[in-house]
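hey so i finaly got around to running the thing on Putative outer membrane receptor for iron transport from Methylibium petroleiphilum. pasting the sequence first so u can double check i didnt mess up the copy paste, my clipboard has been acting weird all day
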Amino acid sequence: MPNDARPTPARPAAALTQLPELRTMLSRSPAVLSALVLGPCAIAQAQSPQEAQLPPIVITAERETDQVRKALTAEQAVTPGAVTLVDGEALRQRNVTSLADMLRYVPGLWAASGSTGDSSFLSSRGSNLDATNYDGNGIKLLQDGLPVTAADGNNHNRDVDPLSARYAIVARGANALTYGASTLGGAIDFITPTARDGAPNELLLNGGSHGQRQARITLGTVAGAFDALVTAEGKRSDGYRDHHRQERSGLYANAGWQLGDAVRTRFYATAIDNDQQLPGALTRDEWRANPRQAQAAALAGDYQYNVKTWRLANKTTWDIDANSSLTAGLSYEEQQLYHPIVYAPPFFSLLIDTEQRNLGGTLRYQRRIGEHDLLVGLNAGLTTVKGGNYGYEPGGAATLSTQVDNRADSLELFVMDRWQFAADWTAVYGAQAVSSRREIRNTTVSSGALRNPEDGYHSINPRVGLIHQLAPTVQLFANLSRLYEAPTLYELEDDVRGDQSTLEAMKGTVLEVGTRGTHDAGRSQWHWDVAVYYARLRDEILSRAPVPGVSLSTNVDGTVHAGVEALLGASLAIDDAGAHRVEPLLNLTVNHFRFKGDADYGNNRLPAAPTYAVRGELLYRHASGFFAGPTFDLVGRRYADFANTYTVDRYTLWGLRAGLTRDHWELYAEARNLADRNYVSLFSVQDRAESNAAILTPGEPRSVYVGARFKF
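ok and heres what it spat out for the 3d tokens, dont ask me to read them lol
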């Protein structure tokens, strides 16, 4: 890390709110306060009466504002497990058009994009390793602490824009209890920039290979107690395959009022229109012969992935006194999906045309009592999905085959205490109580038959963890937690039994240990964040595809999800003045995902996730603002089926990026896959894949992108 990005010293919890700079943070920035509510500062950080530094929490060596750095340090320092934070400023120095780009340097996540922008496949600690590419679950997504994930845990076609985040907090696995989640993958909270927290007026432009062009403009104002920020974007791409075009426009806005010294409120509004062609999957022979071609059925059926979304939200915070606060939030979203996905006439065609509505609310109370920091939270959600499945002719008539009227609700109550019981030790313990319900109402139009599986899911999920401040800048941590995840509506719809039966919720236990810290060697600094985890699951819900676009879901008896997650980096001075620096960054993930004595699959590996993934870069930086260096990806082999008969080979990619930063403008250039390697980005998972199965999605060929940022 450069000298201007060193972690800021922190002080004991009792004295924290007396710091003038943190009083300013609390009064000016709801986004920062949200992060501080999630992790009260400086429990177990004082090794002695003197001040102690916390481990670094940025995943690149890019610049941050002091406010963001303090808020992010507070979040990680009081979590006894893996938490990574992504700085939105750093994303503006490379080509970022998808969540896969944004989460490149987050260990434990497997993110891949084989289509344009909004079609990233996302798996955290082995979540979502099945056939439902269109229905990402297992990770709770939030914006400013308010839900983006639907009440049933579904992230179907969600439009989270990475460049609209001031920063993102990635809490993997049970470490997401702070957000009320007990899912296998954890949670990601995208924090919105505001005019009051220093977000600049800016213009972003980028373009490059495959017809990519994107423009974003952000304007903000502060007038006394009022502030507002609005961003408008337009994005187009022809794609690197046939039938691969994307057109997207978006509007993101927020406005806040300071209602006196103790109360502030903020409103958020989002509107997105995304139209996207899908090129379909290829057989292995087709992929080898011409990876840029589209699947014949995708062309004939005009496969698309079109989503119109609008969302309104509000969050209000009341600082009751110096030791307690209350935050309440409410969000509402409507999402229209038009999704032709299967075309195999005269036998079968499928067009999904539905409207999803999501209502979510949150209430969080935090109270500091002596050496205890208590957090009590309540999340509530309601989701409805209405519309239908159609048989269709491209450009012609669509015939309703199944009428859909589904509903899910969820209530999560969570309590957590962070207790600094000794100078260098903090116990973090709590529990989540969840009560949710799912109801499927699918009516077959031809016969009038109603399929109506419905069930309730209830559980109490405890967690206990420990943080030891081994040195002023080094922490050890461990936690033991229960995982619990109810099925999504789509999983219940696709139950392999096809009757009124319902799936069981996934249950399990995870043990995690790790360390994070920094080492300052004068003009050079090292930082690390390493976690090892082992989870045993029962009734994990997995889906397999007999044909592309169709999935069948079932519970499996037992699975193991284990792995090593490491983020290692440094900023090394190569001259006496420190003007010339070399900055390596390495994201290493090793996965061990297996069935455990399954009646059908024995101890086979779970498909989709690679055995290992290494992503990194080695940048030269100059004090003038110039940087340049190579990037690399090393990805291990994967299985494409549960039977482990179809192997997708490992691959290595090389790239290069460079840029120049100034006070009011920045430039970057990025080249990817310089060797033009033909590789598989993602694929559809089957039970037993035949050698000629059309399941492969090619990765991006050699590509070059350039971008500019102007602040005014």
